[in-house]
Amino acid sequence: MHAAAPTPPASRRQSRCAVLALSALTVVATALATGCSVANTTQTDAANPDTLRIVLPQEPPTLEPCDASLTATGPVVRSNITEPLMERNPDSGDLEPKLADSWEQTSPNMWTFNIHEGVKFSDGTMFDAEDAAFSINRTINSTIGCEVDGYVFGDDDLIVEAIDPATVTVTTPTSDPILPLRISFIEMVPTSTDATDKVRIPIGTGPYLVDYWDPGQKLALALNPEYAGPTPEYTRAVYQWRTEGSVRAAMVANDEAEIATYLGPEDGAGDLGVSYPNNETTALRMQADEPPLDDYRVREAIDLSINRGGIIKALFRGLGDPAAQLVGPSIVGFNDQISPTQFDLDRAKGLVAEAKADGVPVDKQIKLIGRTGMFPKINETIEVIQNSLDQAGLNVKIEMMDTSGQMAYQIRPFPDEGPILLMIQHGNQAGDAQFTAEQYLLSDGYQSTYGTAEYDAEIAAAEEQIGEARQVAFSGVLADEPRLIRQYAYIAHMNAVLAKDASVAYQPNSATGDEMRLAEMTHAESSGND
């Protein structure tokens, strides 16, 4: 991906005045600089039955649509401010039409997307194939460093063409049976959007637009008057952010918010808490190219030393299920025939002793790294695992890090610091095991430390399949990982807790942590349930 995103035609750039709303000073500056009108900013957001007050763990770093795969950005932007050509149903896993009515593979290396006509952006200009092609090029074929690009597309080069106002074609270097799934990660923006840099406030076709953003304080969305779909029941959404989960839960209990996200079982949501599978799987990654972790028996011993059931019951308070693979049940390729490794400390001790007798340096210190705040009770979880590994006969030292420190060990190039056990948490947002395999299972995967040519070939063969054959092939890939590689000790498919006021009807699902669709939230009294 080296080609620059195309510069939009001047006539289209000039016709699109961004609906921008930052603080009062930013609004004035924007209006003077662009000559554009701005949304009315009503920064008094007292409790109102048509306003949703949502409290998040952190302020979004940006609302840039091509960074919507970030968990701090996606819940505000995706399907609220901007929309994709198609979106994945988190329950069925099926792709459903959004801004594209249909799509088909028109040649081995080409997909054709038919654009839904009559849709407008929030600035009143029409959405068409030129905008769709621009959005794809801006995300994939530009140099602005979009998160979606790295996560979903890797190093692929795409040729994107608007054939007519209602038709876009995308050509790939090789046949790509899941290109529509990849394209579903790209949020559509107008050609007036900066093609050379990221934007803070986007223009989209979604049901809401940004009303104002007081940095460090609040972010408010209001209804988009140009929205082509059904009018949502809530006319406004006001986001705040508080770091402490217990504070977020208390805000709902004290009628300061209707929704609080990313809560743990200890945060005190009580009867207001709703548990749901959050699409994350927790696992311990073993640096299998460093002794003693390069010995399969040692890796198996580590896997056997993890008391998954005990951790989930005592530390996660039942909010999770023991994991046997790195993806959850909603993902194409999930294998429901493999079982989590059973806790067997005696067997683990025997394997370590056997390896030691063969000259494996099992006394060499292994660093066990965890990220502070990765999930509730992360510190206690790390300590329980360390204690079991110590009993198994391994020399393990704990090191807790912040996000930036931990990321240095999670992605390539890895530090050369001896054997590492790294606590990871993986959420497959795409719904297909290929995205997990490419990152975490290939021998040269961005977040993989080890593999074999045989296993890489099995993954490559699975990626060529479609339909039921694809499910079967990736099911085999996931079953073979412990047998051929055993780079991971899978721990749990995690559940999350969302606090919800009784006045709101909303059922969170596995996609809620990545996108929280405001249009799906209704007044409880009108829906007959809470």
Can you summarize this structure?
This protein is an alpha+beta fold. The protein contains 16 helices and 19 strands.
What features would you describe in this structure?
There is one protein chain. The chain has 530 residues and is of the alpha+beta class. The chain has 16 helices and 19 strands. Strands 1, 8, 9, 10, 11, 12, 13, 14, 15, 16 and 17 form an eleven-stranded mixed beta sheet that branches. Strands 4-5-7-6 form a four-stranded antiparallel beta sheet, with helices on one face. A two-stranded antiparallel ribbon has the order 2-3. Helix 8 (296-304) packs antiparallel against helix 10 (345-357) and helix 14 packs antiparallel against helix 15. The model is unreliable at 1-42 (pLDDT under 50).
Topology of this protein?
Layout: H1 10-15, H2 24-34, E1 51-56, H3 74-77, E2 86-88, E3 95-97, E4 100-107, E5 110-115, H4 129-140, H5 147-153, E6 159-164, E7 167-171, H6 179-183, E8 208-214, E9 218-223, E10 236-241, H7 245-253, E11 259-263, E12 273-286, H8 296-304, H9 308-314, E13 320-322, H10 345-357, E14 366-371, H11 378-392, E15 396-401, H12 403-410, E16 420-427, H13 433-441, H14 453-463, H15 467-485, E17 488-500, E18 504-505, E19 522-523, H16 524-527
Parallel strand pairs: 1-10, 1-11, 14-15, 14-16
Antiparallel strand pairs: 2-3, 4-5, 5-7, 6-7, 8-9, 9-10, 11-17, 12-16, 12-17, 13-17, 18-19
